[in-house]
User: Fold this.
Amino acid sequence: MSATTVLGWDDIARLQVLGRPVHGVDLGVLDGSGRALASLLFNQAIWRGAQLHGARLQHVNFIECDLREADFGSATLEACSFTRCKLDGTRWDGANLQQCAFTQVDLPASTWSKAEIALSAFTQSKLHGASFAHAVLHRTVIAQCELAGLGLAHATLAQAVLPGVDFRDFDLRGLVAQSAVLQDARFDGMDLRGLVLQRCLLEGANFTGARLDGADLREANLRKAVLAGASLRAAKLDNALLLESSWSEVDAAGLSCEGALFQSAELRKVSFAGTRGPGS
Assistant:
């Protein structure tokens, strides 16, 4: 990437009028805080540490740009895309994103505290060490991404899609997931006490040795899930689908599972003392 030309906002406005991209330039310390940007294409631009706090971006696309350490805090992004961009250490705290796409981007150590992200997608991207603490992800997809050490403490996953994810080194304290797609997830050995996973698709999920005491899995689909050695004391599994699930040496004392379906489930050495539900 060669970016030697420095542009100002007047230059960018002229390019916008001409329908031309902001291409191969260094935007230096250009301040975009609070600005409204619409229908712009940034291609191979350098804007390290960009100040876009509180900005409003609509139909703005970034391709192969260097935006490391940029501040998108409290910004509003609608129908924007980032493709093959460097976004390491970027800050999105309190931002609102609608219909945005992140494809093959680097987002390690980025922060998304209290961000609201809807109808968006992160694909084939690096999100290791990123923190989504207290963020809301609504109908948003995270797929084929590097997610080691991801932080989801007190986050809300509302109809979000995270297929085949290994959650074992994630921070899931206080997570609330409702109608999320989490099939083939790995939760084995994790402390998931009190976690909310209502109506989630957890088909094929591995909960081996996990602590699910007091967890809320009402109406969840746990078909073919593995719960060997798990603890589900006082957990809620009412109206859950547990078809072909595997239970062995499970402590389910005080479990609530009224209306749950256990057809073809394998149950061996399971303690159902004080359980409310089938066979109680």
